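2024-03-11 09:14:02 DEBUG pipeline.ingest accepted 1 chain
2024-03-11 09:14:02 DEBUG pipeline.ingest length=274
2024-03-11 09:14:03 DEBUG pipeline.predict start
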Amino acid sequence: MGVLTLSILALILTQLPAFAQAIDTDQPVTMKMLSSSPQPGERGVQATLGGSQQSGSSNSQGVSVQLIAAHTTNSGDLVRFDADYTLARYKQVETAPWFKVQDDMVLQNVYLHLFKKRWAAEGAAYYRRDPIVGLNHRAFAQVGLGYQFANTAKFKLLAGGSFALGQQSRQEYGSQAVRAVAFTDSLVLRLGKTTSLEQSMLYHIDVSNADDKTYTLSASLLSQITKHAGLKVAFKRQYDTLVPQGVPGLQSAITVGLTIGFQPSHVHVASPKP
């Protein structure tokens, strides 16, 4: 069953750059919605609430909540917190009981420091819960090193490796340590004056259990419609190898949303260079 979730409300608060505008600075790119990170010395918060409802031959309900808080220091270091929660229920006929088809939460805190030239150091704390795929919780701290292959107004690309250490609990495997090598990449491509594409991936292979692999792939197409409004189409794919028997390890979701953005009049966003 494919589920299309329509995000119906998005509000951008204090000092976040205008929606989908490129910023030409030395600030490193990082995970998810990269071009919306604030400029040095600024901070911002973005909240998104979405919902879906379907009735007829079958019935479904869904809700999604997303929060992003980011701060960039005067030296260009980026501190960012992300929270995502999604819940969806389904029943085949009116008289049948509801059952959950999605109930996942992700919390993530990232600190990114850019060295001279193109190297960057990253530290992150991460928490995920997804009982539908048998994951009671997965929590870890991660440190690594990345390299900026491109950093222009039109194209930004950062990729790197890291090591994660933590703990997880899965319904059919019990409590396990997380000792994983990780690969991350982050990309922003400006397709036009008002449109940009953003992509990120986090891939883990556990060094103590080679059968434990997981990855999250996210991509977003953002297009500015008016000065303060835009359209966002997002795709997310999550994969786990250690899932209960009969449960697919691969999950995909599409979100279509309207974004409304504001910035204070004293904030000046640099125009992209040709």
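2024-03-11 09:14:41 DEBUG pipeline.report The mean pLDDT is 76.
2024-03-11 09:14:41 DEBUG pipeline.predict end
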